[in-house]
Amino acid sequence: MSSLKEEEKALEELREQQPEGEDGNDEEEISAMKRRVAEMEQEAAKLREMQANLDQEHHELADNKEDVDSRSIFVGNVDYSASPEEIQTHFQSCGSINRVTILLDKFTGQPKGYAYVEFTEPSLVAQALVLNESVFKGRNIKVTPKRTNIPGMSRGRGRGGFRGGGRGGYFGGRGGGFPPRGGYRGGFRGRGRGFSPY
């Protein structure tokens, strides 16, 4: 996208620099510049078309993702030794399954303890929810519909946000009316703020 803006900027500069014709030599330069400007305009049009195609493909992918999520379930508290085939066997009574995905830790390669099961039809999700709290490999599994992540939206957990007590009192409710030992060191830990003797 930035190359498109650079091309348009260069186009404007070329238009502004076109000199008033005095000789026959200037005419050649002007015609060469006009050809260059026409080439740049064609390239800019191609870039705009490519960007429009990319935007359309992104929108179609988002719709497809929502469709897949509508027919998928989240399975929590899965035994670490479970295989996708075993999970598929456990949910086979609900209907036909497209895919079973067991999530792995990207650093260690070990299972995280949860999985996603994608069915062929969204109606099969309701049947799978009946298996919530069922026993799988000696553990009670948690079965919920898979939620669609919306980019930029958080669930209210994680970094940032408001981290404070709601009890009032001295220094935002941290010490029950007494300042913390060692003085007030700031409301947030870490990130280089305040004094930390350790």
Automatic annotation (TrEMBL):
InterPro entries: Nucleotide-bd_a/b_plait_sf, RBD_domain_sf, RRM_dom. SMART domains: RRM. GO terms for molecular function: poly(A) binding. PROSITE patterns: RRM. Residues 71-148 form the RRM domain. Gene3D superfamilies: 3.30.70.330. Keywords: RNA-binding. Residues 1-18 have a biased composition (Basic and acidic residues). One of its GO terms (cellular component) is cytoplasm. Transmembrane segments: none annotated. Residues 19-30 have a biased composition (Acidic residues). This is RRM domain-containing protein.
